[in-house]
Design brief:
Elements (H helix, E strand, L loop, with lengths): L17 E4 L7 H8 L3 E5 L8 H11 L3 E5 L8 H13 L4 E6 L1 H15 L9 E2 L5 H5 L9 E5 L11 E6 L4 E6 L7 E4 L1 H4 L4 H20 L5 H23 L4 H22 L3 H13 L3 H17 L3 H10 L9 H18 L7 H5 L6 H10 L3 H4 L6 H11 L1
Parallel strand pairs: 1-9, 2-3, 2-4, 4-6, 6-9
Antiparallel strand pairs: 5-8, 7-8
Helix pairs in contact: 3-4, 7-8, 7-9, 7-11, 8-9, 10-11, 10-15, 11-13, 12-13, 15-17
The structure holds fe (ii) ion (FE2).
Length: 403
Amino acid sequence: MNKNIFEFPIRYSAVIGKIAIGWGVYETVADECKMAGIKKALITTTGLKRTGIVDEINQILTGSGIATEIFNKVTPNPKDHEIMAAYEVFKNTGCDGVVSVGGGSSHDCGKGLRAVAANDGKNILDMFVYVDPPWMETIKNHKPVNIPQIAVNTTAGTGAESTVGAAIVNSQAPAKGLVILPGLGATSALIDPLLVRQMPQDVAASTGFDALCHAFESFIARTHSHYNMGIQYRAMKLVAENLREFTYNRMNHTACENMCWAENMGSVGIGFSGGVGMVHGLGHGLTVLYGVPHGFASAVVTLPVERYNQSACPEKFAEMAQAMGADTRGLTAVQASDKWFDEMERLLADLNIKTGHLKEQFGLQEKDLDHIVKWQYERDFCREGNPRDYNYDDCIQLLNDML
Ligand SMILES: [Fe+2]
């Protein structure tokens, strides 16, 4: 007897830590460490050169009696061996907590090393989860994480300061994967516009678009929930109204603060049963093989992928068009869904991001399509929530059309 009621009968929400958003909140980093019981913190970071942020965080901590060590060798899209190197420093210097300073790379490095430390030095590659075998079974093979982490955010953004998973590159595959364990999310996330406004213009554009991707991909996902859709509707509106201004003038205080909210809401919405879809899935392939920044990789594939998805849920695209500011009065759901594409095309053009042209923009080679699609289609988490069915050939076709 087929007992499947429907595809995703139960929706789960993530257990997220404290979130603090506002001007000057980074100055509370030592208080957060003390509340979490951290006496010696490993600061994980890419270095954030020429900003002075890491030095200042370090001074606040040491000035408040919290000893520190710094691991500043994290690179964008952190690799498994970087996580293991950070863990060695954590263990050998007697740290009992993490302060991650930066964007997604720094936070996910901190989460990854905590997963390793909680599991007695087990290689991070042995803790990756996939849709097959089922991730909820894999998680039971590892110990939960009880080492605290304070995430000081400097981008807007990946939202990694408030997600329960760590996105890490398996350098042997190579492919991007996910580690999820109970307790892995940061204990506290501090999102401070004073730090976020120091991003360069191109980073502001691509990371801001990443926040939007989290919002629209989880809104249309099969795994969506009412929590998720409520949060993401507002996140999309905030991005549509603020990302242009923030990209071209990070000192615009209102736009900066609103993007801080949007990026965090985007990630919280993913955790409230939304997930992401094929945009992130194919984007991961471009990121790993060609070093394309995460948000930028998602942005360049957004329009073709969502044209593919449009017919599976036009009413949701219509609602998203409204969130982006389009006037959809008097239109059918299908007509209104086209307005979302109009809004997105305009936003991408305003951010100077060109869709497709993957050969010209990144040197994509036909020989790599099979690798990208195999990992995306067979194992990647992003497959689960995509609103429209697809198979290996559909993915190849999509990428071919974007060459
Ligand atoms: Fe993302």
